[in-house]
Amino acid sequence: MKKSLLALALLSVISISNAADYKAGDIVVRGGITNVNPDSSKSEIMLGGTDSTMSLSVDDNSQLGLNFVYFYDQNWAIEVLAASPFTHDVTIHDPNAVLNVDGAKLAEVTHLPPTVSAIYYFQTSTSFKPYVGLGLNYTVFFDEGFEQAPKSLGLSNLELDSSLGLAAQIGADFQLNDQWHINASVRYIDIDSEATFDVGGSSIGKADINVDPTVVSILIGYKF
Fold first, then answer.
1. Cα–Cα distances in angstroms (integers) from residue 131 to residues 40, 174, 215, 216, in the given order
2. In whole angstroms, what separates CA 76 from the centre of its chain?
3. pTM value?
4. What is the mean pLDDT of the chain?
5. Is 77 within 8 Å of 25 (Cβ atoms)?
6. Could you state, in order of their start, the residue ranges of all structural domains in the chain?
7. Cβ atoms < 10 Å from Cβ of 46
8. Which pLDDT tens digit goes with each residue over 125-154?
């Protein structure tokens, strides 16, 4: 029994080490968990063009990540990153007690960050397939809304502009067999947005938000 298990394990290792390289026309579909972790720096809030001494920060969020790849040859491919909508809590920092809301949850914002990248796979002749990528991201914000407490202070009409920016990534596939693999990637996306809002009915609130997240994905992939 032990010899049979050992033989099976050896055959698995051999089949993985000899896993076929990608080739022109291959299509890969992946699904799993994607985490968007925004830049930890704070964004200053301006009121009527003047620094209010208040600032904003945005927390991270994980969602279902989807990934589609088309190979032009064994090295070059086009990748489309998609996901279910990400929702982030926005925290207000008010160290000088302008509104007495330091550390309070100010709002929630939801966004979709579709990204198209050209990726280059390095040939290793093993089951480990590392790659690098560079692409373009377009992020759309929607369902922006203040919490009830900020609304009672006269804050309303929160809006965030869409963002267009570059995306860079490193990643790797670990092939389980000729069809299935595990994928892991880390990417940086340039996401900058201007947030505007009303204070007491006047359109005087503004903050330049540099989301600039680190995006980490762990996915299961299948090659067609």
1. 27, 11, 16, 15
2. 22
3. 0.81
4. 85
5. no
6. 2-223
7. 16
8. 889 999 999 999 999 998 877 777 667 777
